[in-house]
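Project outcomes to date are best conveyed with an example. Our students and postdoctoral researchers have been running inverse folding experiments weekly, and each run begins with a structure described purely in C-alpha cells. The record below, which covers 498 residues, was selected by the lab manager from last quarter's runs and is presented without edits.
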C-alpha cells in the first residue's frame, strides 16, 4: 500500500492548476455553459442519491481527482480494509467494522454476539428481564461516551419512534451529574437497567457514571442486594466488567473502533428500541453500502465521490470547515456523530510515516438540522467571508403531514440554490446581494428507515476512509485525546486545594 505524501502525486499539481483556472468561474456560469451538468452530476448507489452539480467542479476536475485516488493506491487500501488487515498501524490493529454487518459471511464470534444481543433485546422488550426484586425493566439507561454513545444515540433518535414496544431508553455520557440525573428522572430503581458501554472499560466519565448508577440503585434497595441484574456491559475488557458486577457481558474486539461500533453489541439499546428485525435491517443497509463501495466503478462510487469532493474543497479551494445540514429533525444528531467520525479519524497533522503534513487534513465539521439553522448561522453561509461547503441531507418521504414535508423539502432546495447562485441585482444595496458560488452536496434518501440510516452512516464511514488514504493518515487511531485524559488524572490525584 502507498504511504507517500499526496503532494508527490502527478495529479496534485494538475488539481492545483485546475483550481486556479476555475477560480473565477461562478456556478451560474458553469450551468450556463453546461446546462446538462445538473443531470450528469447525479449519482445513485445503494439507495442513496448524491447530487454534485452544485459543487465548484467539472468533468476535468472529477477526472483529476479520480487519478489522485488511483495514484494513492485506493484500491489496494480498500482491499486491505475489507480483508481485516492491520491498517491501524500505530495500534497494530485492523479496522474491520465491515465484518460486523457482513451477514452470513461475518466471523462466527460476530454472528454469535449478534444473536446474543438480539436475544437480550427481545427479553427486555418482552418484559422478561427482571431486576433484583423481580420487577421487569421499564427504563434502560445507556452509559458511554464518544463512539460508545453517539451512534446508538443518533440511531435511537432517528428510528426509535418507529417501533415503541420497548422500555424507555435514555443516554448519559457526560461526567456532569446533571446528565445522569436527567437520564434517571422519573425512573424506578428496581425497574432500571444500565447498559455500560466502554470498549476499554476504563474511560473515566463512563466509569464515574456507572459507579454513580450503582450508588443510586444501592440507596434504593435493601442493603446487600446483588445489583448485577441491573447492569449489562459491552466491552473488550471482560475482566474489568466482571469485577464491576454485571449480569451479562457482550464482547467487543480490538478491531472495532469506537466511532465505527454502532453495528456491534454497542447497539444493544438501539436493538431494544427498534427490535431485532430493525437492527438487522440497519446492518444490512450498511452492508449494501459496503458492497457498493467495494464493487461500483470509481466514477460512480458514492463514498469515493463524496470523499474526493471534500478533498477538492479542502485542499484545492481552501475551505477550512464543512457544514452538515440534515433536513430531518430525526437526524438532528448527525452533525455531532460526523464530528467524531471525521475529526477524530482525520484531524491529524502527521502522516502514516510520522512526517508533518504540508497540506490541510480534516476540515472542522459542524452543522445543525434545517430549517432551524436557516434562522441563525445560515446568514454566515450566505454572506460571510468564509466559504463553507455543505452537505444537505434530504429525506423524500415519511410519516406525518405531507404539506409540511413539502415545505421542508422546498427550503432545503432553496438554501442550496441561494448558496450556489446567489443574488446579483444592481438595484439592491450591497448588504442585500448574495455572492453565491458556495458549493454544496445533496444527499437524498427515499425515507428515513433503518436500511437507509445504515446506508447513510456506512457511506460517511467510507468517505472518511477514502480521505484518510488520500491524506496518508491513519484514520483509526486517536492519540490526540490522550494528553487531556492524563492531565485530568494528575489534577484529580492532587490533594484538595493543591
Ligand atoms: O477519548 C476518545 C475515545 O477513546 C473515543 O475514541 C471512544 O469512542 C471513546 O473515547 C470511548 O471509549 P471507550 O469505549 O473505551 O469508553
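After processing, the design step wrote out the following sequence:
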Amino acid at each position: 500500500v502507498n504511504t507517500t505524501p499526496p503532494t508527490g502525486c502527478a495529479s496534485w499539481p494538475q488539481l492545483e492548476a485546475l483550481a486556479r483556472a476555475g477560480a473565477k468561474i461562478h456556478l451560474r456560469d458553469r450551468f450556463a455553459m453546461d446546462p446538462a451538468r445538473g443531470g450528469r452530476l447525479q449519482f445513485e448507489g445503494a439507495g442513496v442519491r448524491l447530487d454534485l452539480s452544485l459543487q465548484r467542479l467539472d468533468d476535468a476536475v472529477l477526472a483529476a481527482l479520480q487519478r489522485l485516488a488511483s495514484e494513492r493506491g485506493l484500491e489496494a487500501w480498500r482491499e486491505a480494509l475489507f480483508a481485516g488487515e492491520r491498517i491501524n498501524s500505530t495500534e497494530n490493529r485492523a479496522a474491520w467494522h465491515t465484518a460486523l454487518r457482513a451477514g452470513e459471511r461475518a466471523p462466527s464470534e460476530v454472528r454469535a454476539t449478534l444473536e446474543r444481543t438480539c436475544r437480550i433485546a427481545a427479553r427486555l422488550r418482552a418484559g422478561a428481564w427482571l431486576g433484583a426484586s423481580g420487577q421487569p425493566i421499564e427504563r434502560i439507561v445507556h452509559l458511554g461516551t464518544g463512539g460508545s454513545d453517539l451512534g446508538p444515540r443518533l440511531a435511537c433518535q432517528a428510528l426509535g419512534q418507529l417501533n415503541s414496544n420497548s422500555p424507555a431508553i435514555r443516554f448519559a455520557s457526560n461526567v456532569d451529574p446533571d446528565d445522569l440525573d436527567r437520564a434517571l428522572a422519573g425512573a424506578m430503581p428496581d425497574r432500571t437497567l444500565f447498559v455500560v458501554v466502554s470498549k476499554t472499560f476504563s474511560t473515566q466519565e463512563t466509569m464515574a457514571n456507572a459507579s454513580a448508577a450503582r450508588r443510586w440503585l444501592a440507596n434504593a434497595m435493601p442493603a446487600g442486594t446483588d445489583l448485577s441484574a441491573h447492569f449489562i456491559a459491552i466491552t473488550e475488557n471482560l475482566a474489568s466488567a466482571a469485577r464491576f458486577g454485571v449480569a451479562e457481558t457482550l464482547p467487543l474486539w480490538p478491531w472495532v473502533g469506537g466511532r465505527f461500533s454502532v453495528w456491534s453489541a454497542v447497539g444493544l439499546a438501539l436493538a431494544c428500541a427498534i427490535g431485532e428485525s430493525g437492527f438487522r435491517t440497519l446492518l444490512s443497509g450498511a452492508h449494501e453500502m459496503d458492497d457498493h463501495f467495494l464493487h461500483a466503478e470509481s466514477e460512480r462510487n458514492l463514498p469515493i465521490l463524496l470523499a474526493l469532493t471534500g478533498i477538492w474543497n479542502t485542499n484545492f479551494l481552501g475551505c477550512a470547515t464543512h457544514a452538515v445540514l440534515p433536513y430531518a429533525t430525526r437526524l438532528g444528531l448527525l452533525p455531532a456523530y460526523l464530528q467524531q467520525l471525521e475529526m477524530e479519524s482525520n484531524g491529524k497533522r502527521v502522516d502514516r510515516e510520522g512526517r508533518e503534513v504540508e497540506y490541510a487534513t480534516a476540515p472542522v465539521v459542524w452543522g445543525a438540522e434545517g430549517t432551524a439553522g436557516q434562522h441563525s448561522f445560515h446568514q454566515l453561509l450566505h454572506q460571510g467571508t468564509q466559504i463553507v461547503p455543505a452537505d444537505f441531507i434530504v429525506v423524500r418521504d415519511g410519516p406525518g403531514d405531507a404539506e409540511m414535508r413539502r415545505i421542508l423539502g422546498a427550503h432545503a432546495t432553496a438554501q442550496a440554490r441561494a448558496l450556489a447562485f446567489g443574488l446579483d441585482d444592481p438595484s439592491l444595496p450591497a448588504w442585500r446581494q448574495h455572492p453565491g458560488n458556495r458549493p454544496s452536496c445533496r444527499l437524498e434518501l427515499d425515507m428515513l428507515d433503518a436500511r437507509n440510516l445504515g446506508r447513510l452512516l456506512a457511506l460517511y464511514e467510507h468517505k472518511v476512509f477514502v480521505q484518510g488514504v488520500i491524506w496518508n493518515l491513519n484514520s483509526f487511531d486517536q492519540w490526540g485525546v490522550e494528553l487531556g485524559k492524563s492531565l485530568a488524572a494528575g489534577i484529580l490525584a492532587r490533594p484538595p486545594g493543591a
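The longest helix spans residues 268-295. The two ends are 51 Å apart (CA to CA). The training component of this project remains on track.
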